[in-house]
């Protein structure tokens, strides 16, 4: 009987399985088509030159390919690589086999459904009708996609040739597969022949849409007049549950219905001439658009295909006229209608989101509104995407461009987020609703029914009993609908519409318990955007140009999280890329960082106006006014005082800073919408993109703010750069008002990179720039005595000579500037600076050792005196200048970076004694030196000198001793230099010879440490060279600066009374003024 057949055939189960299988097969066909068209992905053997003859031959002879005789010459390439060809083509061949098997199963199921005389009505047995129509459309789509695979014959033919050559016979499935290819050369014609017997069932299912589709396909004016989706239109009924007889139909995709109608009537076209209702429904669908989606980005021009097919049939001239009329209607009206719909939905979703954010409890009774809003919006988004690359020739192409798409996408994402966030609210509400209303209503409905047969009785009893347990599954409902939709069923849903309504409503409510995510995917899936990258990027670009849309821009990368839904187990090879998501986030971060840094630049300029260097003009003007001097002429432009930019007569006047802050507020609002989301199993954090952009650009800005010019050797003062960085940092910290961003981490990362020679991108840092400038700009001139080290003021100063300098040395080397430099480049940067200074020192020491002084000629004092050379003192002076500069830089580190560790470090340094192991001593001194503490021995200098040793230790020791003696006996010639005059103002000599003391002390300490000799003993010997005058001031400075010598030792060599008289002679020439 018919009932027995329905039970045995398991229609519901087969529909479910075949629909999923058909989707997978369809994706495979789409993937094969894309692969064969892409030169990079195209199978190797289709492009190989050796296979060219084989490909042409198979294409020409398919399906009857002769493997013997003269044809073998064309198949030589396949013969040589038959195993490789089989392996490469097997996946394609198997995919085409899947199509054939899918077709066979669909044939069988459709014939079974016809034999069972099933009843279809979307309002009664929704799931059964929907699955039936979906299977038909999926099957049509598979066949259409199969016909679009141009290389299918070659792929199958090559595999079969390789199989024949390897196994001696063709593949068993090849004849049927080849026959299928030949049959579907004209797919629409063949499909219409196949569906002739199924016309009655398909037409019945489609006609059930005649009440639903016109009601859903309304213009925006009617939506607006009906106050569609508004929760505020009827405040009194706001808490009433949103229910109707056909709940699932309310959020059914309009695009899906149009696909059902247009493709269904294309195959079952005979009813268009015999049934007026079918004709009206078909024409209404034709007026909605020109294109239908097959899969992914594959579309068909349904008007053209239908017209071409009807053109070959008799009696369809009126239908062709209808198609042309509908096409004109689409071209004239469709764009504007959908534009108005999108405008309505933007406002409707905005209102819905605001109300639900304020009262999330309304998600319980009004959850249907959410799914309707998402479904309507999704349809409009996909319509625009579909037509953006298929714009018809119209007078209003702007209807197909929407620069406000970001807002619609944003509110769709907000609704999805609200549903996910408050899913427990929805669950609790529907748990009570099911138990206290649905179960009672269903039970009452069943009491009024006739006695059910055994199978339906079991299902109905299970349906009611599990309702309270909340375990009803969709398949259970589909099975019940299938069993009650066959002809002559004892329990026919057609006869019990009330039962159908209750079942549909109950099924919707059960979905709210554990299928919310599935429902969100069904109603708001935008994964197709993944396959329209050009359109999606164009939408983003158009929205980003609208200032009012900038706060919604994050909806574009958020929409990329839908791409996870594109994955199907039957087609895992499909390309998965984060490119679109990354592109959007990079652009948003770029725009935001540009605005932020422009604001920082403005604030830096304002801060610069408040620096002390700009107050001279103001002080001068105030002084002139007080002394009643001549006022400036009218033509002179007076400088505006800081703060005038904030004065305005009218608040309506918008300044550039106002615009920037407004833009920043809008852009930061987009970042605050989502902290992270997932795309293809990657967790994406938008704020990190902004931090990365800010870090990159801030690094470049800091280097640019140094104003370094390698050609002219000009650079900005460290204090000016530090003030600028502080202004930038202060402005960046205001970002916390807009979004949660770790600005401290950002600034630390940037500044830490600036303490290294190169940043993370390989670019120069301020450490490198200032190191180069101080070495090449300042110290090089100091070595030529154009710049003098001034101990009295702890800086370097320019000589008062005619040579004009490009900069004032004291403006770059006084205490405040060195402190600023230390704060900018930190201990790491100062270490790099020190290493470069040490390189210059070692080069000077190397020159001293390589001078024309040989050890034998130094054995007698007389020969030493004969060999005196000013060059030695000059090099020692340069070393002293470099070490003096380094000491100035090191002193500024103290108490700057680790004040809480200074005490322990000082204690460690003080515990070091001459008896301490030299390795331990150097390790402690290295730590102390990095903290800015003075050490008896310079560890950096020791390391630099140790790396110079090329001869034996004894030989190096002799050279060191003789070098010190040579320096000592050379000192008297300094008196011959007029620049050796001592300056009270400088606290030193004009030729920097006061730096000799630093050079002798530190160099001798380091050299004797390297050679493991007693430093104090050798310095005493240095002082005991008393038969030659060492120079009064230099000798005193050596003792004062040395931790190894004392004044008692100096007194024994040189009476202090002589030194005091020398200072008196120097100072009596100066007039000392007080006050």
Automatic annotation (TrEMBL):
Compositionally biased spans, kind Basic and acidic residues:
633-651
Annotated InterPro entries: Nck-associated_protein-1
Q: What is the lineage of its organism?
A: Eukaryota, Metazoa, Chordata, Craniata, Vertebrata
Name of the protein this chain belongs to: NCK associated protein 1 like
Task: List where Basic residues composition bias occurs.
Answer: 623-632
Q: Which organism is it from?
A: Oncorhynchus kisutch (Coho salmon)
Output the Pfam families linked to this UniProt entry.
Nckap1
Q: GO CC annotations?
A: SCAR complex
GO terms classed as biological process:
cell migration; cell projection assembly; cortical actin cytoskeleton organization; neuron projection morphogenesis
Q: Where is this region: Disordered?
A: 621-651
PANTHER family per the record? NCK-ASSOCIATED PROTEIN 1, NCK-ASSOCIATED PROTEIN 1-LIKE
